[in-house]
Structure formats: C-alpha cells, structure tokens
Amino acid sequence: MDPKIAEWNERYSDAEYxxxxxxxxxxxxxxxxxxxxxxxxxVADGEGRNGVWLAQLGLDVLAVEAAPRAIDKARQLxxxxxxxxxxxxxxxxTWDWGSERFDAIVAIFIQFVGPELRAQMFADMQxxxxxxxxLLLEGYRLEQLSYATGGPKEPANLxxxxxxxxxFAGLHILHLAEYDAYIEEGSRHRGMxxxxxxxxxxxxxxxPA
Length: 209
Description:
The protein has seven helices and seven strands, in the order ααβαβαββαβααββ.
C-alpha cells in the first residue's frame, strides 16, 4: 500500500467520522441538479458522507476510495441510512476511470496531489463524463494556508479560479465561486475556510472548428 494511503487508512481506524456524517454543504446546495437514476461517481469518498447522501437521493452511486478502513465506515453509514451504493477500493492515480461512463462526478476536497498528477486526474474526470454530464468540485484556495483549518499544507495542491478555468476549458462552466466561509465537517474541517466551488457541464457534441 502506498505510504500516503496507509497513513490515511490508519487515521480512518478511529471510531470517529473524521469529516462527519453529513454531506458537504456545497454539494447539498446543488441537490436540484441531480435526478433519480443518474449514475454518479464520488471521488475519494472517504467515510461515505457524500456518497451515502447521493444514494439517499435515489442515484446510482459508485464511491471510489483508496483506504479500506474508510470504506468499512462508509458501508456502516450506508446501513444506518438504509441505502445501497457500490464501493471500489482503488488508487485514483492508477484506477481505470473509463470513458463517457457517468452522468455526474463529485469531487470534494480531493487535493492530495500536485499539479502534474492533478492534471492527469482532471483529464480522467472529463473523459469519464457522459456528454451533458456534470462535474461538481469544491476545494481550498491558496488563502487557506493562513486559516490552517484543514486541507493540504502544500501551496501547489491548492486551487485558483484561473487554474480551474484552464483545467476545465473543455467544459461549460455553470458556476465558479471563490469565497470564505465557516465550515464544520467533523474534526478535520472546522473553522473559517478559503473555498472555491465549481459546477461544469460536458458539451453534448463536439463544436465544429
């Protein structure tokens, strides 16, 4: 097991849900974009708070996570909430994302890689979306380093609006917002935070040159 994955696996061994059991606030605010039966990928789903919530909406959810202990807790949470979703234990950097597979991809606080590997992962996401599919992403901005209330310590792993616009230039950006807000998501994300939200849609057809 990769050392970073092993480190997170150990963290998830605690009975506490590190990021809580409720969905991310930005994701919950986008509920109207989801329709029952949509096939949705929850990227690096952790202990299941987002994947389980998506399943509660009647969506066909695949939650991919690298830490086995996190998946165990996600399955417990799904049982508590009385929903079913598929889980896959995989390293997202080597996982086969597939092509035109998902109606929506949800990527909440997945800032565990630097620019080069992030570019690869963002490209994989776009390829995996069906035409017309939605990408919903939230992360921390550079200003988060001064708050120190969660997220990566490496500046290169943080987002800027310009970087996201460039990375997802092939999608139609429906919503892109930078703002500061107080969040309380378990013990790991708590306090005033520098956030950035993105909602983008994959074009339904190629635009002629």
